[in-house]
Amino acid sequence: MLNVDVSEPPTANRPAGYQVGDVGDFSLSATVTPRTITQGGAVGVTLELRGTGNMPAQLPVPVLPGVEWLEPEVHEKLAPDGDRIAGRRTFAYVVRLREAGVVDLGAFQVPYWDPDRKAYDV
Length: 122
Description:
Layout: E1 23-33, E2 42-54, E3 67-69, E4 73-81, E5 84-97, E6 112-114, E7 119-121
Antiparallel strand pairs: 1-2, 2-5, 3-5, 4-5, 6-7
């Protein structure tokens, strides 16, 4: 018989944007290509979420004037690693830019509960 003790992480000090179930230890990296386009063009933004645990299936995109994020293409390579799931989930976005000049695409944050440290992290 297998007994599993499941409990929700504490609500105290829970970071904004945390989704119940985002539990593990994650890191996030991003690339943008191309770095220069003509006005009204688009860039590709690839986000790679790596780590162990229950990774988010989607990421909230920054909402900024003149920046339109299209639905991402999502790929994953996850596998058991001892008693955990580990690997990566990649989100490939096309981002349309309507403004001329240097454009700030905003920031992505992934709030999660780290059960080993018994603490939230972003």
